[in-house]
Amino acid sequence: MSSEGTIVGGRYRLDQPIGRGRAGIVWQAFDTRLFRTVAMKRMYLPVGLPPDRAEQARATVMQEGKDAARVDHASAITVYDVLPDGPDVWLVMEYIPSRGMASFLAEHGRLTPEQAASLGIMLGDAMAAIHAAGIVHRTLEPGTVLLADDGSVKLTDIGITGGGPHPAYRAPEVTRGAPASPAADVFSLGATLYTAVEGVAPFGDDGESSERPPQNAGVLAGALRKMLRMDPTARPTMADTVAALSAITEGREQTAFIPPTAPAMPTMPAAWPMPPNQTGQPGPVQPGQPGPLMQMPVQQVPYAPAAPQPLQQPMAAQPTQQMMPAQPAHPPQQAQPQPPTARFVPSAAQQAASAAEVRQKAAARRKLILTVAAILCAVLIGIGVSELLFV
């Protein structure tokens, strides 16, 4: 039994358990050779097998780990290594601070159809890359989806049979004994997204109940029905599924997963005016048009002030010259007059303070001149007295 501090493969130190899947415990570990944190999971091996079958099972899980290491996608967990350690086989993966989708839904509840569609785009795109590599996932379900702390989505257990898929997310043909196929992965993705928006699996926890019609899926309902078809040949491909989900989001899919507890983008109430249009009047509010917090109007450049006129009366009494624009051939319906240009008029206290400062500077200059003159006079007198004494 593995425990904290155990060294696996003479290289990886198990630090603490960070999750539990159907195939066993996932550990946060430390690579003592490359000095980096990794995630490790002991591959599932049936117990009590004869020696020849046990060795065959070990070879099978080794090959599954090697196949998973060939997948390179932003939404698929990266597999670094697969190594035997005594009777066990361990999978070494990148460490992603995250939480499982199953626990996330249990705490925060359902996702919106748009959020589920964006999640499905990322998962479906990763699944398409997995299928292109000739691999079938086999166990896609909320328990194998990680929602990372940085907003990304990571798919785990790629091609790993482990303890087998959850019955609620297993395709009906696989339940009947058929081998797993890309069409079965499409069914599993549909059941996972169904659970995300409805809160329950489409055919019950055992996968054998009658189909529950979606009640909260909204625009996602049609795509879910196609993915959950009983006939695998009638289901869309994974690439077609991604295209359908992208059409649902109308190109506004999220590049990072946003939990349902995140504040929504503010929308514009009907009472908010839009920026003025070409006639100078506020524009009408159009449905779906962004509000002031989403689109700020361009700042208007004011008219340049008029040249100052000679002072013939107090500044406060002088009128401000207006820049009269030329009259257009067809004047606007309601032309807005330009506001007068403001000018600075000093107060009496400010004028008095300025005059006092000028007087102080003049007095200081006079004092400096008198001091220099006195010094020069003293020097000249000293020179004259010394000449008289030494003649």
UniProtKB/TrEMBL annotation:
EC number(s) recorded for this UniProt protein: 2.7.11.1
Keyword Iron: no
Domain Protein kinase: 12-258
An annotated Gene Ontology molecular function: kinase activity
Domain of life: Bacteria
Protein name per Swiss-Prot or TrEMBL: non-specific serine/threonine protein kinase
Pfam families: Pkinase
Region (Disordered), start-end ranges: 273-293, 309-349
Composition-biased stretches (Low complexity): 273-283, 309-336
Transmembrane segments: 368-390
Keywords from the named record: ATP-binding, Kinase, Membrane, Nucleotide-binding, Serine/threonine-protein kinase, Transferase, Transmembrane, Transmembrane helix
InterPro entries hit by this protein: Kinase-like_dom_sf, Prot_kinase_dom
